[in-house]
Amino acid sequence: MPRRTTWLYVPGDQERKLAKAADLDTDVVCLDLEDAVAPDRKDAARGLVAQVLERQDFRAEVWVRVNALNTPWAEADLAMVGQVLPRVRGVLLPKVEAPWMVHRAAWHLALAEEAHGLQPGSVPLAVLLETPLGVLRAEVVAQASPRVQVLLFGAEDFAAALGAERTPQGQEVAVARQWALLTGKALGKQVIDMVYVAYRDLEGLRKEAEAAARLGFDGKQIIHPAQVPVVREAFTPAPERLAWAEKVWQAYQEARRSGQGVFVVEGKMIDPPLVLQARRLLERGGRL
Ligand code: COA
Ligand code: MG
User: Is 48 in contact with 18 (CB distance < 8 Å)?
Assistant: First the structure.
């Protein structure tokens, strides 16, 4: 799967930001029809996003966040995506709480793939887990279709639904955030961490992103171009960690040749789980 460390939202009704998004060096640009767009602008945003998708090339992968499947806008959003499908990399479904929501979106994609002569099943889905029910049902939702490649955790909607107050420590969302991560990793999905809304506080973002990387998340949702380099850097392993990983990887190749299961690097025992940790670091650092 392609790297999706920086997942940047762009409000679907804001021409200037949509134009700006074309050249941004982010992994994903996610054109938003949902929370970034006010109810009375939904139709205008849908029309604008369709135009932008047809006319503008993006440096990043382009995803579209449609409105939740239990809202009056979702069908029109999915129909629009279907029309321009070859220009869209994937579709993000917000506030997913039940398999039928995934099935419904998958059905739209299947029809559109056929209409455009695309390979059946080739367009992936991402699902936002951001309600108590959605988090509890993460496993069935993620397994509702093989199209689901990415799980994202949404802290703000989750806290709101819970009646919790957000804090810098994030204790109020910790269990749900970890649950989303655990589920995604158990099922082999990419898992993308919550947004850091104080977008001018890049130091706070860096700390939260580094913690997310240590927990095992594959990336972070972001809302402002200035957040891109900070998140990318936080998800890049430190040089000392990479140097350690390379040593372990080399020692592992030698140990394999001489038939050893366990060996020592820098005075510490290395066995298969540590080899795997080293491998993950090298992957994250782009060395493998
Ligand atoms: N995508 C593309 N361009 C963006 C952008 C985004 N998400 N956020 C800001 N920019 C652009 C601005 O247009 C501006 O460019 P310009 O000077 O050429 O006009 C530049 O980056 C600097 O923006 P800035 O003035 O610092 O921010 P702002 O006050 O205009 O906007 C936000 C702040 C938070 C409203 C804005 O970043 C935003 O809309 N983020 C996305 C919100 C969203 O999609 N939320 C839903 C998902 S959680
Ligand atoms: Mg939301």
Answer: yes
What are the structure tokens assigned to 159, written together?
A: 């806290």
Is 43 tagged catalytic? Answer: no
Ligand nearest to the CA of 161: 2
State the catalytic residue, choosing from 23, 25, 201, 271: 271
For residue 141, which of 159, 126, 156, 155 has the smallest C-alpha distance? 126
254-280 pLDDT per residue, tens: 999 999 999 999 999 999 999 999 999
Q: Does 184 lie in the same domain as 274? A: no
- Between CA 88 and CA 123 the distance in angstroms is 8
Judgement on whether residues 200 and 273 belong to the same structural domain of the protein = no
Residues 214 and 259 in one domain: no
Query: Are residues 271 and 129 part of one domain?
Result: no
**Do 194 and 185 form a contact (C-beta atoms < 8 A)?**
no
Residues 188 and 104 in one domain: yes
- Structurally, the chain folds into a number of domains equal to 2
